[in-house]
Queue: 2 jobs
Job 1
Amino acid sequence: MNGTIHIRSLNKDDIHCVAVIAAAAYCRDGSAALLPLLRVQNAGALNGLRAAFEVRLAAYQLAGHPIRCAFDGSRLAGVAVYHNGEKRLPVLSWADQILQRLPRLAGLLPCVHWRRFPEMARLIKAPVTAAAPYLFLETLAVVPGYQGQGIRAALLEDGMDQAAAADLRGMYLYTGDQPKASFYRERGFRTLEVRGAGAAAIYHMYRFTG
């Protein structure tokens, strides 16, 4: 990894930039299994998706969930967003963040395929074999200009350090992208379960701390 890259926790001023990167990664890298749930087809929908990520990031930050950012100097190069199941998200935190961004979120609603939610919920539900308590990796995204420099791997290892520091048993994630599943296997994750088939397969993966 580039020696100028450093990783730190999210600051409030970073939320919009991180949301832009996360939304772009969803549109660029979303798997065949996940994209049918939400198709971003216009500028209003993209703005709504960014607002949705801002809501989650702000609520997670308030609740103390790890959000780790890789910087090249002052330039954001990548981000990892985690959910710690041991920390609860106050309902008021969500409500306040949603109300602040409601006009922008409205642009996303027509793009959501609501009837697909029950099946998607079944596909992405964590397997019982995921040893709790664990840190759940929700988003791992690197800016295109910084890909191939080891930032994704560095953020992942930093996340394992966060899990160990919180006395969690490991890290859990799912991905619908086979090359990414291979990337995680190369870094110590094992496949717990595969749901779906072919391009629509969802890989549930886990790595113990220590």
Job 2
Amino acid sequence: MNNTDFRGQVHEMATSTTPRDRRTNTEQGELISDESVLIDRARTCPEAFGQLFDIYYERILNYLFRNTLDLDTAEELTSSTFFNAFRSLHKYTDRGLFRAWLYRIATNELRMHYRATRGQIKQVSISNAQFERICITRPASPTAEDSAQALETFSKLHQAISRLPARYRTVIELRYFEELSYNEIAEVLGKRVGTVKSLVHRALVRLKTHF
């Protein structure tokens, strides 16, 4: 299988286990406009920040869970992410990249976690109870077979990703699961777009060896 085919396979597996944004382009544009208003209000109004929290909590939790494979750890890091975002909101310059800014804070939390655990992810079985608590796309009326297949797909891919070095895990998650653009990932990581593309390519090559 060549790298292009493998990239497509990873994207297909990712989209089968990741919540999709079904808003139209118009609705997304309205959200961005409304979000800018919310951000301005949230600088001095905790209730407005609570609305931003509601919008992004599941996405950040999912991202951190997929990088730790431990729900308790993910919830703790998610709480720290939003706490630090609220404390630092006065420093944020609105350039339409609030989502990337949040992911940058979450990624910094991950880096500190990796330093404390020497970059290791717990190799544990993911229980159905944990899996059900994470927002995953499923059929409207999933059968037991559907749920089992989704859990198997999730576990297989993420156990493979967990064997990658942290820098590769992060770009795979941001690109294929969170569906951030290369520009957004560059903002998250504080790197150039060309460097991000190179990291993604190398990450896919390394990931392929684990399948």
